[in-house]
Amino acid sequence: MASGEMARDSAIPRQPAGPDDPEAARRRRQAALRRYTRHPGFMVGATIILLLALLAILAPWIAPNSPLKTEMSLVLAEPSWAYPLGTDQFGRCVLSRLIYGAQISLQVGFWVVLISLTCGTLIGALAGFLGGWIERAIVALIDIMLAFPGFLLALALVAAQGSSLTSVITAVSIAYTPRVATVMRSVVLTIRPRPFIEASHAIGLTKLRILLRHVIPNAMPPVIVVATVSAATAILAEAGLSFLGLGVQPPTATWGSVIANGQAVITTRPLISLSAGLSIAVAVIGLNLLGDGLRDTLDPQMRRQTGAKML
Amino acid sequence: MNADLRSTGEHETLLQADDLSKVFGGRGLLFRRSRPEVRAVDKVSFSVRRGETLGIVGETGSGKSTLGRLLIRLLDPSAGRIVFDGRDITGLAQGRMRKLRHEMQMVFQDPYGSLDPRMKVGAIVAEPMLVHGAERSGIARRTAEILEWVGLSPAMAERYPHEFSGGQRQRIGIARAMALDPKLLILDEPVSALDVSIQAQILNLLRDLQRQSGVTYIFIAHDLAVVRHISERVAVMYLGKIVETAPRERLYAAPRHPYSASLLSAVPLPNLRAERQRKRIALYGEIGSATALPGGCRFHPRCFKARLVAAAGGVATTALSKDVVVPSRCTDSEPPLADDGNGHFAACHFPLDPNGAEARDSAPFAAGQSRRHS
Fold first, then answer.
1. Which single residue of A30, A308, B152, B329 could bond A222 by disulfide (Cβ 3.0 to 4.6 Å)?
2. What DSSP string describes A262-280?
3. Distance CA B98, CA A110 (A)
4. What is the per-residue pLDDT across B167-204, written as a single tens digit (0 to 9) for each?
């Protein structure tokens, strides 16, 4: 074709947005940021979690009293300036216990997400990507673990291990890893047949590199959402374990143990249990809002293509 | 039986396939139900010379894409042999095969799906170089060079694939495939997903690249017009077999296989008068299923020529149904891919006469072209 050269020249594309100057790049970054800041749920959730984190980190400076100091003269005191939420039956400041309790709850949430996200992602990705008997074995194992209610499994593990922060984190992580792995596997199954995976084989990438460079990055958005939401369930699980006396041992302040202590006097001093319950509710709602926000904003292109079902 | 198209001239054979077959499904392993066997590619033999372009044409389900993947071992053949650059690569272990990948690359049909949406264009094009151990310092320069080579601006390396149009993405796919300067490029319907105006640009780009680098193309398409534009030799596939192969001009001017003839008759002509006058050969029915191949010639249930030959009499015939009668040879024996003496191979018991009326009528594309040029 004689017009070949011409056709080729005219084919050099000009984006209407203009050339690739730093200005355009900055505008693209801003647009991406706006997706987050314009999402009310995401902003509320992120604010709540950020405030809770600040509270937990700055607990020694913020808390009005020591969470452990017992004041026998002030048992079950009414709220006052010195004790804004009153004291419990050992004369400890309830507000201070709640503020320090946030440390435990957020630590559990953080570590459980980190551990179950890492392990679940790897296990799920291997199962989905390798297929064959490896996949069948992993899926069978996951199914067995999912047959137990997550909380019961954690309960049994803590009961077997003894109660400490580490064992609570381990137990809850083990209980939640299969959930992340299931989601990961199903997302990887939707990615595996996509042409760019075959293209990676054609280029000469090893399976491991394809998994690390192409499969996992593309599978992350829905998995991150699941992980955020499971941080909420992990906090609930820790509170539940503490409530039953199987969590981090007394006298350490945790939200669950504050509820448990307050339960005995719930008719006369309902504020103790209620305030701890409210703290848990706020943290869980914050994380759920954050998860929903992430689901809506994490790379919309991606979401449309994988069509992955979120929890 | 084998159509050995090895060149007799000064060119060297780059790729040769001998009796290449791929069967999907079959007997199930433990726990797995057995699925019906699909003979996607059935004893295909051909060779490609260095620097030439072989077009492979066929309907959906003809096995052409499977064949392309077999040739570069993206799929493992069930039987047969592949010789690439004088080396048998049929049984090469995956690790050794990976090292050879930089010599054989592929461009995929789907320009939307074949690029990782989470990678920047620069990283996509650089990836094959990274994998095959190019020096890091050279990669950025080479990436910019290649992007420019395929008609994109090097500044676009910082963008993501979704910011590009289909034609631009296909350029990116071509850039990735050409990054390692391969000897062989399998083009699996590279323009089928693009607008016609963009198709021409991509085809011209491919031609320019070939001129500059001497790369060998195997161009897979279902569109005869596109293949004609770029190929020197064309092979027509039907249900896993090559039924005809010839130098481009000969195949388009005078197809010998009834299937090729009917495909050609479906190509619309640019000349309106010729378009109104030409005869079209309608095929009977749909492409058969590769799970239940007809016996003898696998084209006979749809063949117009078989019906004509049977109607003319003088041969033993078999009735397929109340109305359809075909020669017994077509149902009983599989025709070999036979040379007509001029390097024009066809697998047909009753090939079309290159000077006969059916062949002329069925090749209006050539007629239209010559009229345009005169």
1. A308
2. HHTTTTT-HHHHHHHHHHH
3. 41
4. 999 999 999 999 988 999 999 999 988 888 899 999 99
Q: Does B168 touch chain A (CB under 8 A)?
A: yes
Domain ranges for chain B: 13-238, 257-337+350-373
To the question of domain B13-238 being in CATH 3.50.50.60, the answer is: no
Contacts of A206 in chain B (CB under 8 A): 98
Say whether residue B96 is in contact with chain A using an 8 A CB cutoff: no
The pTM for the full model equals 0.78
Dihedral angle computed from the Cα positions of residues A11, A17, A18 and A21, in that order, rounded to the nearest 10 degrees: -120
Bridge partners of B234?
A: B55, B246
Is some CB atom of chain A closer than 8 A to the CB atom of B101?
yes
pLDDT along chain A (311 residues), means of 10: 41 43 72 77 90 90 81 77 80 88 90 92 91 91 89 86 87 89 91 91 90 90 84 88 85 86 85 90 91 76 41 33
The tens digit of pLDDT for each residue in B129-178 reads: 988 877 778 888 889 999 999 999 988 888 888 889 889 999 999 999 99
- Cβ of B108 within 8 Å of Cβ of A19? The answer is no
Q: In this structure, how many other beta carbons lie within 10 angstroms of the beta carbon of residue A38?
A: 10
Contacts of A202 in chain B (CB under 8 A): 72, 74, 101, 105-106
Q: Which SS3 state, helix, strand or coil, does residue A131 take?
A: coil
Q: Tens of pLDDT along B52-84?
A: 999 999 888 788 889 999 998 998 899 999 999
Q: Do B201 and A11 make contact, defined as CB atoms within 8 angstroms?
A: yes
Is the CB of residue B181 less than 8 Å away from at least one CB of chain A? no
Nearest of B259, B263, B281, B279 to residue B222 by alpha carbon = B263
CB contact under 8 A, B101 and A203: yes
* A25–B contact, CB cutoff 8 A: yes
Indicate the CATH number for domain A42-71+84-306.
1.10.3720.10
Residues 4-23 of chain B whose Cβ lies under 8 A from any Cβ of chain A: none
Report ipTM for this prediction: 0.81
- What value does the mean pLDDT of chain B take? 83
The answer to whether B72 contacts chain A (CB < 8 Å) is yes
